[in-house]
């Protein structure tokens, strides 16, 4: 099998190959352009408290949520959490704690709230 190589073949074109086919044609034959695969259907993750229904204050929290409604309850809970975070921030400023320590205290407060049932 002999192939001829001309000077024009090296001026930016790889047009001739061993079989005499164009390089683009070889690439097109080698692999399909696109293979579509169906995505697996995933269920939406549930954000749920692992301690739901547990803790000293959980029954009080559940009764309050049922009385005033879920929307209003979540608004009040958000305000309470924001206020508590501000208190922690002011405390950290007064003792000279850095941002990393402040964030650690806020995380600790959240864990304690979960254990006590405030996030039920």
Automatic annotation (TrEMBL):
One of its GO terms (molecular function) is electron transfer activity. GO terms for biological process: photosynthetic electron transport in photosystem I; response to high light intensity. One of its GO terms (cellular component) is chloroplast. It comes from the Eukaryota. InterPro entries: PGR5. This is Protein PROTON GRADIENT REGULATION 5, chloroplastic. It comes from Sesamum indicum. The gene is LOC105171742.
